[in-house]
Amino acid sequence: MRDHKNIVLAVLAITVLLMGYGYSVLLQELSIQGSAEINGATWQVEITGIEDKGLLGSAEVLEEPTFTKTTASLNSAFKYKGDSVIYQMTVENKGSMDAKLDSIQILPTGDSKSAVTYKVTNVTPGATVLRAGEKNEIDVTVAYSNPENQTELNFTENVSVILNYVQARV
């Protein structure tokens, strides 16, 4: 009888350990940044270029925009209410899997975060699909709204735009 209890306890202990291991395997997250290859399929969605498409008022582009695969850095200067800069970002799917724009993060780091508005056009997070081999032009407008109605105020605005793509479901 005592041997029977020991066997049951050993089986229960092993079962609990296996369940814990299985649970930990299920909780692991697969995160791919940049390029990856899975069974011949490749993931490579990246920003390939940025240019200023238009200036309104006395807005200026202080530095050439810079970018990594999924993040753009924009640096603008404004003087009057209504000043704005339109940046056009080219995003290219160089991989073999279709990608869907999951989200866009805009992170201002400039002088007056509350006086600047941002508008992104030509894409819709959660809906825009970038097929393998295709390009997309995304417009980002950075505008000075001057909520305090000051007649003149010189300041700069640095902003990072982060594009988060996920695999599109077919």
Question: Would you write up a description of this structure?
Answer:
With 170 residues, this protein is α+β, with helices and mostly antiparallel strands. It has one domain: Sandwich (Jelly Rolls), CATH 2.60.120. The chain has one helix spanning 2-27; strands spanning 36-38, 41-43, 45-56, 60-61, 66-67, 71-78, 84-93, 99-108, 116-121, 129-130, 135-144, 155-167. Strands 4, 5, 6, 8, 10 and 12 form a six-stranded antiparallel beta sheet that branches. The radius of gyration is 25 Å and the shape is elongated. It starts with a helix and ends with a strand.
Q: What's the total number of strands?
A: 12
Q: How does the major sheet shape up?
A: 6 strands, antiparallel
SSE-based structural type = alpha+beta
Order of helices and strands: HEEEEEEEEEEEE
CATH fold name: Jelly Rolls
Give a short summary of the structure.
The chain has 170 residues and is of the alpha+beta class. The chain has one helix spanning 2-27; strands at 36-38, 41-43, 45-56, 60-61, 66-67, 71-78, 84-93, 99-108, 116-121, 129-130, 135-144, 155-167.
What would the keywords be for this entry?
single chain; 170 residues; alpha+beta; Jelly Rolls; six-stranded antiparallel beta sheet; 1 helix
